[in-house]
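#data-curation
PF: Archiving a pair of folding outputs for the training set. Convention for this channel: one message per protein, sequence first, structure tokens after, nothing in between. First:
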Amino acid sequence: MAAPGALQRSVVLPAGRHSASLIFLHGSGDTGQGARTWIKQILNQDMAFQHIKVIYPTAPARPYTPMKGTFSTVWFDRYKISNDCPEHIESIDSMCRGLTELINDEIKNGIAKNRILIGGFSMGGGMAMHLAYRFHQDLAGVFALSSFLNKDSAVYQTLKKNKSILPELFQCHGTADELVLYSWGEETNMMLKSLGVSTSLHTFPNLNHELNRTEIEKLKTWILKKLPIEAAETNE
């Protein structure tokens, strides 16, 4: 695996002064550039902002058990694609360390931790929930699109002992998803809400394991709510 600080990334720079950052984690087998291109095709333009830098990192290739050990660009390994099995915590924690380096890079660039959002699609959203709720509870927020956590997730175990204010979760899921069932996403949302997370779950009828324009537009509105341009002046 690549060194933790060496994650490749595709970056959309802000049009104006950089005062906030967004990290978007791709789904299994994809790349940062692939996720950026997919969103660009849906919107007919990059997801771009006046003041927010958008970073699409690429997961290092590793053996992936659901693909019989074939190397794939995945954030962590799974024993199987199911919400009813143990998490592969060693690979999750290893990647949390690598992504922490990415967060620290933004902080070194003068961006306050509460001006950084993290999230992603499918496995990327699951990774983001582990990273934020277990290790970086002072981030601005978390988004998870067509994502889930396992029933006995380490995230839930951490939050059962937590007393801090937690980042808000923005979740979207299609009811026709055949890979990550809608019920898995709904159960994740309910569990996190019961453990003190402020959550929203946006349901998309007939949407399979994919993104659509309405979903991305809703996400953009939420991003600007969490990282408003007015706050830029307080971050000198």
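PF: Second:
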Amino acid sequence: NMDRHHYEMFTKFGDDGFLLHLDNARGFGRHSHDETSILAPLSQCCIIKRTTLLRLQLLAEPEYRLSDMMRESLLQDRLAPVLTEPHLLALDRRLQLILKAVRKCIDTYGEAKVVANDTTQPEAPASDRVKLTT
């Protein structure tokens, strides 16, 4: 979301104003334009959590396609349809761009350096381990 770094101050009540973060509906952008510059952190750092990657890969599978999941979820919204069909299909296309960027990182640096394993618990130091007797 390219507009998330903007904010406004609500000052209708004078000095007792407050910060107001706005989403000006640009989060999904134009369905026909993929803003690839927002992938820069991923492409430059080349690191992604294993759980995130697994979820993205799942949402790229035909039976769990991101557009289908969003379409179903948004049907519950009182303002449905929230997104147009071209915007929903753009989600699938953009997901492929993300996965392509991850694949490029893995091809360049190897999976062990790119995919951070967040699925295992760090081992406690030996002094903190509970001693079990049998």
